[in-house]
Design goal:
The protein has 278 residues and is of the alpha+beta class. The chain is built from 8 helices and 14 strands.
């Protein structure tokens, strides 16, 4: 099967998956092959040579179709939810100058920054927006979801779609129910794996995990995109964790993704996150 045949096959499969009013067309231009898709008054171009190479390298047509649909979904959602405000975590001292002009709240040695989710743009102090932290957290988890991974396997991942009428507590319960408690470390982020460190502030996430494990939690700031949760088994030395975080930040984390060298601690009795002294 050559690239043109592959494109025709993908066209037929897309027409089966999408609503009947969707139109698909294979276009050839200067030896390039594209799939043009008309959906919901929008046009989408897919470079079939790129997808064909992925297919030749072992990607299944099902995975490729899902990736195409996901791209369409992101564009459709961006148009519908372009004004949705969420929150993210950044290092306070690193962004201290920029934070003077950005809507934020200080949290320990970090800053909770308000931003437009689909534009990925911070809200400046001059913009008139009426939203508090509780509402912004709720919207962030609603539109970006939660992902809880071990360092070995994906444990559970959930995206709270608009049509999902479950409460936040029910979503958290699902996550913790599917958790393999034998793993020593867990990665907490969002469905996009982007700006997901804020997930530590999602209501009841750390509390539910700590209660399920029967232990408090060390929280390591892996980056602005994710954090690592380690159940405290009373044998872990804080100095070892500090050394590990510092080494990762120096060797593996891009400067723009840096969150902190600090170690945080979730106390399940106090139901709060603490900043451990160095």
């Amino acid at each position: 099967m050559d690239c043109k045949q592959f494109a025709e096959d993908m066209k037929c499969k897309m027409e089966e998956l999408l609503p009947s009013n969707t139109k698909c067309e294979v276009i050839t231009e200067n030896k390039n092959v594209y799939l043009l898709l008309y959906y919901n008054q929008n046009q989408y171009y897919f470079d079939m040579k790129v997808l064909y190479r992925a297919y030749q390298n072992g990607s299944s047509t099902r995975c490729l179709l899902l990736s195409m649909i996901e791209k369409i979904k992101q564009v459709e959602m961006r148009g519908e939810y372009e004004d949705i405000i969420g929150v993210k975590l950044v290092n306070y001292n690193k962004y201290k100058q920029q934070l003077q002009h950005i809507k934020h709240e200080k949290y320990l040695d970090l800053a909770i920054v308000y931003y437009y989710i689909w534009e990925d743009r911070e809200i400046t102090d001059g913009e008139e927006v009426n939203i508090n932290l509780e509402d912004a957290l709720e919207k962030t988890i609603h539109y970006l979801g939660v992902s809880l991974n071990s360092l070995e396997d994906i444990i559970f991942s959930v995206l709270c779609e608009e049509e999902d009428d479950r409460t936040l507590e029910e979503v958290v319960t699902d996550i913790i129910y599917h958790l393999d408690t034998t793993k020593p470390m867990y990665v907490l982020t969002n469905k996009r794996k982007y700006l997901g460190a804020i997930a530590i502030l999602y209501p009841k996430i750390c509390q539910a995990l700590a209660n399920r494990m029967g232990r408090n939690l060390f929280i390591l700031p892996s980056s602005i995109h994710e954090v690592i949760l380690i159940p405290d088994n009373n044998t872990i030395r804080k100095e070892e964790l500090e050394s590990m975080v510092s080494e990762i930040n120096r060797t593996e984390v891009l400067p723009k993704d840096y969150l902190s060298d600090s170690i945080y601690y979730y106390d399940r009795e106090k139901e709060s996150i603490l900043l451990l002294d160095k």
